[in-house]
Specification:
The protein is mainly β. Helix content is 8%, strand content 32%. It contains 6 helices and 27 strands. The protein has a 4-stranded antiparallel sheet, with no helix packed on it. It has a 4-stranded antiparallel sheet with strand order 8-9-10-11, with no helix packed on it. The chain has a 4-stranded antiparallel sheet with strand order 12-13-14-15. A hairpin with a 7-residue loop joins strand 5 and strand 6. The longest helix has 12 residues. The C terminus is likely disordered.
């Protein structure tokens, strides 16, 4: 790492080569280089600097406008926001503005979203590694939104851009029977598959989902390669939440965490076409995990890549707390860290962690709220949510101060509040002999 700057009236740059940076206060870079006095602000932090060129990963500034000592300098971290601004400048695109239309529709539309699954589905995303979003709706429609590598999604169908795609037309089968969805590369083909739990306990795996997929919409229709992982009327009717990730230490996102209606939490390792196997218990049946309304998996501590990746579990609780359980490879739900808390999060209705900002980590949190507002928290960490990007504004008729104080029974009519313990359709009496 090298640091360059022009102190005071100096006519030549001061170069500090071959040193190291460290994290500071959660969102800054710190570097120790002597003599960087007034005038060095804006000097670059350069990685792989060869005397002529290097990779800019920061600029002197940030904490205390660069620090209080001439011998230690700081930079704000370059994150997805910087990448977004850079691409807007390079492409001649207009910068963000408050209330900008993202093309994703209105809150009145998104109040009808039932579930979401993140994954690399579109062929364009398979080349870039960016995440896309599959959304299920309360009329049975299923939609694929390609990620735009810029903390948002492609909508509609514009020239030279991936198209928003309808994977299933509105239909009674998905409307009445699809319960919980998640996605991962269970087949090991470098393409994401969609896993669906139906209300009767059947679990189906639809392999290699892409913009060309047309999901079945009737019981007599099937996709080539479709796999039934659990038969109807199985114990899976008691499953309440799914979170797919790389929990077992290999490079495939093919491990599944399940939250059951009695509060038990289990993990299934290396799911494939042969079924749901290698189950292990992460938490015995308990009252607390009954209140985990939503769960999703991703990489929130930077340990999700490399030779032995370990993804983390994020949970939203009924009391509005959001917490992360890092590195589930340990086989235990340990080291819980609070990400957020407060009544606002009691209105989160659909969540999905994905890699929407091109930093190589599944740390961007998609949230659809009960009033239909949609936000994305880029670069969320184990200890704090990332910066909020609004994709769909709240209903205009609601004051901003109370925009999320709309219970789903009000905002969504009689539709069940998905995965809410004790909500409409909640099954009870799970057989105590399920765990062996």
């Amino acid at each position: 790492m090298s640091l360059l700057g022009f102190p005071g009236a100096s006519k030549a740059p001061l170069v500090c080569p071959s040193t190291h940076t460290s994290a500071f206060a959660g969102r800054f870079l710190r570097i120790a280089c002597k003599g960087y006095s007034d005038g060095v602000s804006g000097g670059p932090f350069l990685r792989n600097f060869n005397g002529t060129r290097g990779e800019v990963i920061g600029v002197i500034g940030g904490w205390k406008t660069g620090g209080t000592s001439a011998d230690v300098s700081y930079s704000s971290q370059f994150d997805a926001d910087i990448v977004r601004l850079y691409r807007q400048a390079v492409n001649g695109s207009p910068p963000d503005s408050p209330g900008a239309d993202t093309g994703m529709g209105t809150a009145a539309l998104w109040r009808h979203a039932k579930g979401a699954a993140s994954g690399t589905f579109h062929t364009a995303s398979q080349r870039s590694g960016d995440s896309d979003l599959v959304v299920t709706w309360d009329d049975g429609e299923v939609t694929l939104y390609p990620g735009d590598q810029n903390l948002g999604f492609h909508t509609g169908c514009r020239p030279a851009e991936p198209c928003e795609t309808q994977l299933a037309v509105p239909n009674a089968m998905w409307r009445d029977y699809a319960d919980v969805i998640t996605a991962g590369d269970y087949a090991g083909t470098n393409a994401y598959d969609l896993l669906v739990k139906w209300v009767d306990g059947e679990v189906t795996l639809y392999p290699d989902i892409s913009e060309r997929t047309r999901l079945p919409t009737a019981l007599d229709q099937h996709l080539p390669g479709e796999i039934t992982l659990a038969a109807p009327h199985s114990v899976w009717k008691y499953a309440r939440g799914f979170a797919t990730g790389k929990y077992a230490g290999n490079r495939w996102p093919d491990d599944l965490v399940v939250r059951w209606n009695d509060g038990e939490v289990t993990e299934y390792v290396d799911i494939d076409g042969n079924g749901l196997h290698a189950e292990r218990q992460l938490a015995a049946p308990n009252a607390r995990w009954k209140t985990a309304r939503l769960i999703t998996g991703g990489d929130l501590d930077g340990n999700g890549n490399g030779t032995t990746p370990r993804h983390d579990l994020l949970a939203v609780w009924a009391d509005g707390r959001v917490s992360v359980f890092p590195d589930l490879g340990s086989g235990h739900l340990d080291n819980e860290q609070t990400v957020a808390s407060g009544s606002t999060w009691t209105h989160a209705r659909v969540i999905a962690l994905g890699e929407y900002g091109m930093n190589g980590r599944q740390d961007d949190l998609f949230v659809c709220w009960s009033d239909g507002e949609v936000t994305l928290y880029g670069n969320t960490r184990a200890g704090a949510t990332g910066r909020e990007h609004r994709l769909v504004p709240p209903p205009a008729a609601l004051p901003a101060a109370v925009r999320r104080d709309v219970r789903c029974t009000t905002a969504c009519g009689t539709e069940p509040y998905r995965r809410a313990p004790g909500g409409p359709g909640e099954l009870t009496g799970r057989p105590p002999t399920r765990w062996r």
